[in-house]
Design a protein that fits this description.
- Helix content is about 50%, strand content about 15%.
- The protein has about 500 residues and is an alpha/beta fold.
- It has 3 domains: about 5-110, 2-Layer Sandwich (Nucleotidyltransferase, domain 5), CATH 3.30.420.40; about 110-290, Nucleotidyltransferase, domain 5 (2-Layer Sandwich); about 305-440, Hypothetical protein af1432, CATH 1.10.3210.
- The two termini are about 45 Å apart.
- About 50% of the residues are buried.
């Protein structure tokens, strides 16, 4: 599949209906178009009841617009899925026929299908995910165990944000009793006790925004954001005290989401109390991205989403397409045996560093840091972003001893010290090779038997080594606690 091919998904949920058109590399899809309609199909719906006529009319008008947009956009694939409200409604089949009459190939997802798609969405963005995925929609809550890149047991429960409000209206403790009863037969949940709880869904992403604001978190990136399980209790109280109007004033929290946060926070606190996770982790990928991931072959699934995303984003700006990989291999000599989770971060820094020539010299450092911290990447947490940013801060010419303060809030000192060394290696490589991949192959760097950091320079290339090169080599060696050596 071409990395520019567009794929569309129409998600007909109980609360909202959304058209999302994806582009970019298949393993790291990015959103090109995203439109949401708050139709409220699940409003007032009871099992076996009929969909609200006004909500149906609103939904069909919006879906007709989506159909017209798709005819103009001409994506290579269109998938239209309906979930909990349409599953539960007596007239769900009639509604789907009306959607198909608009030219949209609507299909009904079972509860298990919905849960599995949410689980694979988390795996797509957090490949190492191991624990419980909880996808809160308007009409249902999907729980699924993920481990080893696969979806395992799953269950769909009637605890979407709409029915939760009705349950809570019944009195104090009703939600906990209902949850405990619903989970009674899910014995497999014992397996995920003490593992992370991954949250999927717009309501919980909005709740994470509230947590970010209350704790002063400096990076407004939701993917991989995490907080302590015990925080769910004070977050519930905070949301109740603040009220919808004050919550809607927070960045990234819409008026509609703000009105649902009290129920969403109550559900999270209740669920956390029952399954006892080690921490709460936010996933920006969910059902829609999971549907795309399920179409991929084994080779595509195995690709690194961070590297695929960064490579696609910077591809048109790299002066020599071979340079980032040559830079990575050259650096392997200075960082032998580096664990793969760290090497992939250095790889991302090499890719972004290869675009430095395209930036205004006065802003290269700032632009490199900003791309690392705020790029639309998946498969990387805040600490990883900070390490990439630190490497670029140093490698593109920033003061190695004065990192941006935000990095000190996102990553530990040891992590930043390693990233600083990566940056010093980037600076030395740029001085040696001038951005030419073949030049780096001529002057390999490595570790000598006595532990020194050795730069091997053939006699024919000796003129490359000027005082600036020597200073950069010495500074890199000191960062690695080694002695600098130059050999022919």
């Amino acid at each position: 599949m071409s990395s520019t091919a567009r794929q569309a998904i129409v998600d007909i949920g109980s609360n909202s209906i959304r058209l999302v058109v994806f582009g970019g590399p298949p393993r790291a899809p990015s959103t090109l178009f995203n439109e949401k309609l708050m139709a409220g199909l699940g409003r007032g719906l009871t099992a076996g009841g009929r969909l609200d006529p006004e909500a149906v009319a609103l939904a069909l008008r919006g879906l007709a617009r989506f159909a017209a947009l798709l005819r103009l956009m001409e994506p290579i694939s269109v998938q239209v899925v309906a979930t909990a409200a349409v599953r539960a409604a007596m007239d769900g089949g009639e509604f789907l026929e009306a959607v198909r009459a608009l030219g949209l190939p609507a299909e009904l997802l079972s509860g298990d299908d919905e849960a599995k798609a949410a689980g694979y969405g988390v795996i797509a963005s957090i490949p190492e995910a191991r624990g419980l995925v909880a996808d809160m929609g308007g009409g249902s809550l999907e729980l699924v165990r993920v481990e080893g890149g696969k979806v395992h047991q799953c269950v769909s429960l009637p605890f979407g944000v709409i029915p939760v409000g009705t349950i809570r209206a019944g009195g104090r403790g009703m939600l906990r009793r209902a949850m405990r009863k619903a989970l009674k037969d899910a014995g497999w949940l014992k397996v995920v006790a003490g593992q992370p709880l991954y949250l999927v869904g717009g309501g919980w992403r909005a709740l994470a925004r509230v947590h970010m604001q209350r704790t002063g978190w400096p990076l407004a990136v939701l993917g991989h954001y995490h907080f302590a399980t015990d925080d769910t209790r004070w977050l519930k109280a905070d949301v109740r005290e603040a009220g919808p109007a004050r919550l809607a004033a927070l960045p990234g929290v819409s008026t509609t989401r703000a009105a649902q946060l009290a129920d969403g926070s109550a559900l999270l606190a209740t669920l956390a109390g029952e399954v006892r996770p080690s921490q709460i982790v936010i996933s920006t990928f969910g059902l829609r991205e999971g549907l795309l991931y399920q179409k991929l072959g084994a080779k595509a699934r195995a690709a690194d989403p961070l590297i695929e995303g960064v490579r696609h984003a910077v591809g048109g700006q790299i002066q020599d397409s071979a340079y980032p990989e040559a830079l990575l291999r050259w650096g392997d000599g200075a960082f032998p045996g580096e664990p793969e989770p760290l090497r992939r971060l250095r790889h991302a820094a090499c890719l972004i560093a290869g675009t430095g020539w395209a930036s205004n010299p006065d802003f290269r450092v700032v632009e490199g840091e900003d791309m690392a911290l705020h790029g639309n990447w998946i498969g990387v947490d805040a600490a990883g972003r900070a390490m990439i940013a630190m490497a670029l801060h140093v490698g593109l010419g920033g003061d190695p001893d004065a990192p941006p303060p935000i990095l000190l809030q996102l990553a530990g000192r040891d992590e930043l010290a390693r990233a600083r060394a990566w940056g010093l290696a980037l600076r030395l490589a740029q001085r040696l090779g001038g951005g030419a991949p073949q030049a780096l192959a001529e002057v390999p760097i490595g570790i000598a038997a006595d532990g020194g950091l050795v730069l091997t320079v053939p006699r024919a290339d000796r003129a490359l080594i000027d005082p600036a090169c020597e200073r950069r080599l010495t500074r890199l060696a000191l960062a690695l606690d080694r002695q600098a050596q130059i050999e022919s």
